[in-house]
Recover the amino acids of this structure.
């Protein structure tokens, strides 16, 4: 199999804080192929944005590395980092606040090019015009200011800015979460169109498994800093392996009163703990209805099963930490 | 939407303006709605469609220069809009309990949660403080807070988002209201926590036989919770029906388009993503005629001339569209 475009190797990040600090990301590993979408799903505070920032080299991991197309991004020399940075771009949830309010839309979109010292002013303007057209805005919009645009339009502007350096990988961190359903569908369609045209690879982060399922080829499920399940999107949603993935799926209200009413919603004990306590066993154990005695003492490692799917749970026998697997990927 | 004696609260032709009489916007423009005993009505619509404005108007909490400029809210044989402020204060919080959209601003950070619930009780009933505090603990238990007696002394920042929402629910039901208004009660919550809060709201409502007005933009929440559904667009109700009709026989092009977007997002990758073109109108510059016309795939020339009124299709189904006859059912 071809070398992955992106190879995330056992990334860990702890933030200083009271006590042991916050273990925001623990030994997260996955790969991304060209043109592929990986969904990253999990509840608030589980470490999704921290993982995104590690990928973009915006923060330095305590352990692990990010490899882009065979070149190590993490800790690379300044020049190499600068070049690699062009290849991964990000779109945030709150597009308006990620744009500079005092600069016109055109200047905002061209900013990454200017920072990288690429192109002449004329070339940058031409690039902006082409991108505005690509994301469904008018060329004249480049002279207006971000606050004159709606949430969905700001998200289009943010996508244009993310694309101006012709990246290979775009990270969407809750990029459609704040949008109404009618606008959300517009932005998702735009994302998918752009992916097809340019062969982009996406990391699509959301707390909403319904949306993640729609756009992802594979899905990684995070719980308290760890990836607890990783596999092909449809299989993972149809037959989840990890009890947490199953809990997420059961809790999603289906938009059809004939299929689901409130009493059919699956309830899971408790709420996610804060990741500031070192837990000896499985992080989901306090909420897990299927927990085994050993779950309280031993941490299950993410291991690949014979089906090619990965899960970190003792209910799936090969997910045994004694196998020594610390990272795994589904090819 | 059902026999008159079932109706606990009836909103008629409600109109609410934000800002001054000149230069303001009419956020709710002729809204009619009935809440039935023991039933849940979902008010659904996109951001800015006027859902919160409707709830705040029912509670008469529109701050000047904004004002309620028309209509009536009939409850218990009276029009709430013509009550004096003292009488209204008794209704607000006691007969109608409200869970506001922004949970952070609705809890006082400097007061223990037991204390806040007791305050609500003391504001409406003449009981001793100790009794009110005891009832607060019982309420916390009822909404599923473990170790309620000791946790009552804790402050809001000690609670997770889901727990805070439970506290707000406890406050809203403290005086056994006949009506509960919950404005996006689960929007900020994780999905596993949302499921539990929805179940709690439903169980309490059944137990108390209260009417629940549930405001949300999430069609999944609507489908699982509602008996009746009112779909809002740009300050008006465009379709109003029982939940099954809304999801299986929607008649308004906006409702149909909204469900189309959802299907594209929720179903498998093969289902087409069908966005609604454009965006909701600016309330300062409404299009002529039907407010949905600029985005509507069914629009004819007449749609730009005449504003459609809510029309009765059956005892439980109403829609506001000029092309209802032309369009097939479902
Ligand atoms: N700079 C920081 N300093 C200290 N703690 C942090 C910092 N950034 C994040 N954290 C903590 O790390 C954990 C993971 O946060 P992160 O923002 O990655 O979660 P998330 O999954 O993106 O959540 P959400 O869905 O709410 O965006 C949280 O407990 C958070 O409070
Ligand atoms: N206090 C206010 N002053 C001026 N305009 C307001 C005020 N509150 C709301 N509006 C405007 O009134 C309209 C309706 O707002 P409302 O808050 O009722 O929408 P909503 O349907 O609750 O939206 P959301 O889903 O975002 O909560 C919007 O255009 C909004 O900008
Ligand atoms: S009245 Fe006309 S424009 Fe409005 S929803 Fe009906 S068909 Fe569409
Ligand atoms: Mg985040
Ligand atoms: Mg609102």
């Amino acid at each position: 199999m071809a070398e992955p475009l992106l190879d995330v190797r056992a990334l860990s990040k702890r933030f200083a804080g009271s006590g042991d600090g916050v273990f925001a990301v623990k030994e997260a590993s996955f790969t991304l192929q060209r043109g592929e979408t990986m969904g990253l799903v999990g509840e608030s505070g589980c470490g999704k944005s921290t993982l995104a920032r590690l990928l973009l080299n915006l923060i330095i991991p305590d352990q692990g590395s990010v490899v882009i197309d065979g070149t190590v991004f993490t800790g690379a020399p300044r020049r190499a980092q600068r070049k690699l940075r062009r290849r991964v771009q990000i779109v945030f949830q709150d597009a308006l606040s990620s744009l500079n309010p005092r600069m016109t839309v055109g200047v905002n979109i061209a900013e990454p090019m200017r920072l990288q010292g690429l192109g002449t002013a004329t070339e940058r303007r031409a690039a902006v015009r082409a991108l505005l057209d690509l994301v469904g805005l008018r060329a004249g919009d480049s002279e207006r200011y971000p606050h004159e645009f709606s949430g969905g339009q700001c998200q289009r502007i943010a996508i244009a800015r993310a694309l101006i350096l012709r990246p290979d990988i775009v990270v969407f961190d809750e990029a459609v979460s704040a949008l109404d359903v009618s606008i959300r569908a517009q932005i998702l369609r735009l994302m998918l169109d752009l992916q097809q045209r340019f062969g982009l690879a996406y990391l699509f982060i959301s707390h909403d498994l319904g949306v993640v399922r729609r756009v992802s080829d594979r899905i990684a499920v995070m719980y308290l800093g760890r990836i607890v399940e990783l596999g092909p999107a449809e299989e993972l949603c149809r037959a989840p392996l990890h009890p947490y993935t199953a809990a997420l799926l059961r809790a999603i209200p289906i938009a059809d009163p004939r299929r689901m009413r409130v009493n059919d919603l699956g309830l899971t004990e408790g709420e996610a703990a804060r990741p500031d306590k070192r837990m000896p066993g499985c992080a989901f154990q306090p909420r897990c209805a299927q927990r085994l005695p050993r779950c309280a003492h031993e941490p299950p490692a993410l291991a690949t099963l014979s089906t090619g799917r990965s899960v970190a749970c003792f209910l799936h026998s090969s997910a045994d930490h004694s196998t020594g697997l610390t990272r795994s990927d589904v090819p | 939407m059902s026999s008159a004696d079932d109706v606990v609260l009836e909103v008629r032709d409600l109109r609410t303006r934000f800002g001054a009489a000149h230069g303001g916007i009419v956020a709710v423009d002729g809204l009619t709605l009935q809440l039935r005993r023991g039933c849940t009505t979902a008010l659904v619509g996109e951001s800015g469609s006027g859902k919160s404005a409707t709830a705040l108007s029912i509670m008469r909490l529109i701050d000047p220069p904004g004002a309620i400029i028309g209509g009536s809210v009939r409850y218990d044989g009276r029009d709430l809009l013509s009550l004096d402020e003292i009488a209204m204060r008794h209704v607000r919080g006691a007969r109608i309990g409200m869970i506001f959209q922004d949970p952070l601003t609705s809890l006082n950070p400097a007061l223990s949660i037991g204390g806040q619930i007791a305050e609500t009780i003391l504001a409406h009933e003449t009981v001793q403080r100790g009794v009110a505090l005891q009832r607060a603990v019982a309420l916390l238990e009822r909404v599923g807070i473990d170790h309620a007696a000791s946790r009552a002394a804790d402050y809001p920042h000690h609670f997770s988002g889901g727990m805070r929402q439970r506290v707000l629910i406890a406050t809203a039901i403290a005086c056994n209201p006949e009506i509960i208004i919950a404005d996006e009660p689960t929007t900020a919550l994780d999905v596993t926590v949302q499921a539990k809060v929805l179940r709690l709201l439903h169980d309490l409502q059944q137990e108390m036989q209260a009417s629940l007005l549930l405001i949300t933009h999430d069609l999944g929440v609507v489908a699982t919770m509602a008996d009746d559904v009112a779909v809002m667009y740009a300050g008006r109700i465009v379709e109003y029906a029982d939940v099954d009709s809304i999801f299986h026989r929607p008649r308004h092009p906006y409702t149909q388009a909204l469900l189309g977007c959802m299907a594209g997002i929720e179903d498998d990758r093969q289902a087409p993503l069908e966005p609604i073109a454009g965006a909701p109108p600016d309330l300062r510059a409404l299009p002529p005629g039907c407010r949905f016309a600029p985005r509507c795939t069914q629009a004819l020339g007449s749609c730009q001339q005449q504003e459609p009124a809510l029309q009765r299709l059956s005892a439980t189904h109403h829609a506001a569209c000029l092309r209802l006859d032309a369009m097939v059912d479902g």
